Input
Amino acid sequence: MADLRNNFVGIKSPNPFWLASAPPTDKAYNVERAFKAGWGGVVWKTLGSEGPPVVNVNGPRYGAIWGADRRLLGLNNIELITDRDLQTNLREMKQVKMNWPDRALVASIMVPCVEEEWRAILPLVEETGVDGIELNFGCPHGMSERGMGSAVGQVPEYIEMVVRWCKQYTRMPVITKLTPNISDIRHPARAAKRGGTDAVSLINTISSIVSVDLDTFSPNPSIGGKGSHGGYCGPAVKPIALNMVAEIARDAETYRMPISGIGGVTTWRDAAEFLALGAGNVQVCTAAMTYGFKIVEEMISGLSDWMDEKGHKTLDDITGRAVGNVTDWQFLNLNYVAKAHIDQDACIKCGRCHIACEDTSHQAITQMVDGVRYFEVIEEECVGCNLCVNVCPVENCITLEALPAGDLDKRTGKVVDPAYANWTQHPNNPMAVVAAE
Ligand SMILES: Cc1cc2nc3c(=O)[nH]c(=O)nc-3n(C[C@H](O)[C@H](O)[C@H](O)COP(=O)(O)O)c2cc1C
Ligand code: SF4
Ligand code: SF4
Output
């Protein structure tokens, strides 16, 4: 059976599934039950400075986007960091760590960008015996207006400075949690590395307005008719998170820096994708908030079964396996040719592929043949764009098939060339580096 044990910057856990810092991890009552359900680790809900706790709104703090079957796709929140006092959190963390020595317990921290504040809180956290700290440079609402959260995460110099303080004032491993609300994720990741971070984690939530109530014209969630931007997460953000993880994993300056992957992880498959793109483990929030702590059981068994089936013995066998296959567009092989193929036995003749291709792609799917509804690909027109595959309601009914080298591409009238050729060498590229004749 596959070995799911995880060692992330020296923090050990029985599996790579950690709960992200958020409501599921904001008190001992929750964290104890999460560990009972099987979670390998937990990042405690973000702690703030000693003093009066932060104040949350007393009305709706969530909004959402759903699929047609009402399945939750994206969650938006305007919640702040923990609204429980620091000493209560520290006391509970210490007790939980004593009760669960084999699980990872990480403290998330967000205090003002002032050296004294960090120097003051770090020993208090260290005293609890937790395994590490995560610096919350991510929250895009509420705390950022106070100069914390994403307000720090958007300035690489601040990230570097705070990470340096943390490395100076604590022996605990430091995980720097990045905000996706930035144009190029490599800059904050590089800054964290320069500051000496042990790892980065990403993504925190994305700045968003999830919807507008068209009766009251208030953004949702609405607090007495007014709304503010919130943080977006859940399955909808996974593609953004995967790309950011891959960008860091393949950047020369941050290559092989440990990454904790966060954003939309709902199934074992999502987790495996994060691992393949360079994450050493994953963190989960929305899936636990939607389906409860026991969802981890399916994640563990699914990942384990898949690893057994593929012959992967440990997480190291998967981690980073897809990184080398992420490239820039200009290096894609322009001699690769694929065509759509429709399985007539599977087709229910709904016509969606025809409409999509006819109206917005390349007019390459029939609708009527010999007076009857019949959907087939016209190879002379098909550019292999994959749109029909994605709109077809029947899984695997339309597939894209690569033309073998030497076959004729009926659209271009050219034989498929076995050689690799990309845009950097293409004659239409004014910047092309073409070998002199
Ligand atoms: C209600 C809510 C509160 C959150 N609070 C925190 C927080 O206190 N600290 C933090 O670092 N991230 C916080 N997050 C962000 C999550 O830890 C996580 O980065 C994000 O939700 C993406 O993961 P997901 O798609 O699995 O939800 C919060 C998320 C939600 C939904
Ligand atoms: S792959 Fe694109 S061009 Fe080809 S049939 Fe499908 S939608 Fe049309
Ligand atoms: S979308 Fe799929 S099921 Fe519908 S007609 Fe096209 S191939 Fe058939």
About this structure: The first strand starts at residue 6 and ends at 8. The domain at 6-325 is CATH 3.20.20.70 (TIM Barrel). The chain has a mean pLDDT of 95.
